[in-house]
Amino acid sequence: MKQKYFFANWKMYLTHSESLLLAEQLKKISAEFADELEVAVFPSALSVAAVSSVLDQTPIGIGAQNVFWIEKGGYTGEISAGMYKEVGAEYALVGHSERRHLCGETNHMVRQKIEAIVEAELIPVLCVGETQAERAAGQAVEVVEAQLRAACANLTYPADRTLFVAYEPVWAIGTGETCEPSEVAVMHERIAAFVAALLPATKVAILYGGSVRPENAAALLAQPQVDGILVGASAVKADTWRALAAACVAAR
Ligand code: PGA
Known about the structure:
alpha/beta; 8-stranded parallel barrel; 8 strands; binds 2-phosphoglycolic acid
């Protein structure tokens, strides 16, 4: 039986008090799934510490949505990987498409961030994916491989840690359009092969993200190449979170 990962990216959907309320609800629900799930939530920076305290005695891990690549210093408004680690984070998203496309994050910046995440002993969840235009031009694989190469080539990665890659086609994020499960499987295979060539000694888990909903999660999770899901909008309500968690348990 292979456990599936269920990571929830809360983005900027919830205020601090809403984040705490959802964390309390998830704490209760998570008891239903006990050890059957590999699960984490990624609250806004403001709420990481408090949500981490609420979920302290549960199997739910905590992650940062973004980090800065320098540990400390005069970088107004930024937060380092080590700072997140200190308040309970285990994971960090890096290279999410909203950061790449809305905040101008480049492959070079993603590389600096992933190095900082590894250095701080957090687990990176590296997000990659093509835009609609790149897909239409037949460049999806090329774009994803360039993102992976920039982030992972010659990266010193600890042998005892899993590296997470989330395949999130940009056109599928927050749009209600999901990539066909068979296409996801093909891209995940390409990603697995490409990362294995770049980092042969590293264990990699590949998640799919982009409009995952309780209705389509089972078909995606049924693909053996899909190690889990990274979910935004559908994972910020307790009832849909529970349905997605149940889909992950059923897909093992
Ligand atoms: P979505 O977001 O589930 O709302 O499409 C996924 C993500 O951006 O991680």
